Amino acid sequence: MNVNMKSIGLTESLSQEAMNYSNLLVGRVTAQYKDSYKVVTERGEFIARISGKFRYQINNQVDYPAVGDFVMVDGINDVNGNTVIHHILTRKSIFSRKVAGSRNDIQVVATNIDTLFLCMSMNNDWNLRRMERYLSITWDSGATPVIILTKSDLCEELAAKIQELQPIAIGVDILVTNNLSKDGLQSVFKYIGTGKTIACIGSSGVGKSTLINRVLGNDGIATSETRKDDKGRHTTTRRELFIVPGGGAIIDTPGMRELGIVSSDISKSFADIDQLALQCKYRNCTHNSEPGCAIQQAILEGSLANERLHSYHKLKKEIRYGGLNSKQIEREKINTMFQGISGMKQARKMIKEKNKRNR
Ligand SMILES: Nc1nc2c(ncn2[C@@H]2O[C@H](COP(=O)(O)OP(=O)(O)OP(=O)(O)O)[C@@H](O)[C@H]2O)c(=O)[nH]1
Ligand SMILES: [Zn+2]
């Protein structure tokens, strides 16, 4: 399978960065196994391992290649099939989570994503607090969130549900889909196309794999239906990037029962609360019981849900405890950004934006 790398997201600046390694070929990681990776290049698909030197330089989990990474490889003509990954090119977005059961281990779920489809089904998976988490993490990852409400055929109060969602999804597109009819899918195609990478996240069984199969026009991914084995839990056992026939790439992720937060951008996902807080009487108001608290006032008046304030507090606390992890990620972002001249520019831009945000 020969792949047009531009079509699956190789940008001008990545091509430039790749020129620093003139004897290597650029590829994209499409799947990850125990200690090898599937990589597509313009000359076909290969199973690759990382070089000894690369492994030696790795300090922590986030330094390893992940699905979605553009990497530099050689050895594709090796008769023994020893294709080797030597470098990861600058990541423009990193979507990561804390690994369940471990306090500090970060798992990079996928990288270089333009749009994250935050999937939630309109029947039994409905949970606004979870969506708030997804949104915070997405804003921080560098990708743009789009909310995909699935299984609309199983929901009778569509308008009411969307109304419920709107206050927590300011500025975010909300699409209503239904995998059983073609009409319900038209809206998602707007985000898919040449050069673009989508990743789908959401609880197990909401229909991510079914949606991707529809987009790809085949039944390539086993859904819980086609596998006929259980209740729809953990059907997708690994992350995988698929090439969309008309251009672009789409990444399936396993249903995550809990999305441990590594870092998240609360200032964006809870902009309404930050805005209100400016009107609190005391600058260091904790919004619990202080007099003149604009947030408590908004709750009294019914313009802000108490539960939303609760998740705001909860997320803030989690991030504080996970501070070390966000620093690790931050360091990773800066390291990779300083590779190559175009990387310098990006790093400068990022630091500027960061300062703006912290002001
Ligand atoms: N009624 C209805 N059922 C759907 C829809 N989309 C998917 N399903 C069914 O929901 C079940 C789960 O779908 P999957 O696509 O495997 O869900 P998933 O989100 O990929 O699940 P994991 O792989 O476990 O993360 C399957 O039986 C699908 O046929 C829909 O729009 N409406
Ligand atoms: Zn207050």
From TrEMBL:
Compartments, record wording: Cytoplasm
Task: Say which enzyme class the record assigns.
Answer: hydrolase
Tell me which NCBIfam families the record gives.
ribosome small subunit-dependent GTPase A (TIGR00157)
Provide the primary localization: cytoplasm
Query: Entry cofactor note text?
Result: Binds 1 zinc ion per subunit.
Q: Which InterPro entries match?
A: G_CP_dom (IPR030378), NA-bd_OB-fold (IPR012340), P-loop_NTPase (IPR027417), Ribosome_biogen_GTPase_RsgA (IPR004881), RsgA_GTPase_dom (IPR010914)
Highest taxon in the source lineage = Bacteria
Name the family.
Answer: Belongs to the TRAFAC class YlqF/YawG GTPase family. RsgA subfamily.
Q: Which residues form a coiled coil?
A: none
Annotated CP-type G domain residues? 103-259
The EC number(s) given in the record are: 3.6.1.-
Q: Which GO terms describe its biological process?
A: ribosomal small subunit biogenesis
So which cofactors does this thing need?
Zn(2+)
Extract one GO cellular component term from the record.
cytoplasm
Quaternary structure annotation from Swiss-Prot or TrEMBL:
Monomer. Associates with 30S ribosomal subunit, binds 16S rRNA.
Query: Which Gene3D superfamilies does its entry note?
Result: Nucleic acid-binding proteins (2.40.50.140), P-loop containing nucleotide triphosphate hydrolases (3.40.50.300), Probable gtpase engc, domain 3 (1.10.40.50)
Q: Which UniProt keywords apply?
A: Cytoplasm, GTP-binding, Hydrolase, Metal-binding, Nucleotide-binding, Ribosome biogenesis, RNA-binding, rRNA-binding, Zinc
Protein's UniProt name: Small ribosomal subunit biogenesis GTPase RsgA
Give the protein's function: One of several proteins that assist in the late maturation steps of the functional core of the 30S ribosomal subunit. Helps release RbfA from mature subunits. May play a role in the assembly of ribosomal proteins into the subunit. Circularly permuted GTPase that catalyzes slow GTP hydrolysis, GTPase activity is stimulated by the 30S ribosomal subunit.
HAMAP family, from UniProt?
Answer: GTPase_RsgA (MF_01820)
Q: Where is the EngC GTPase domain?
A: 111-257
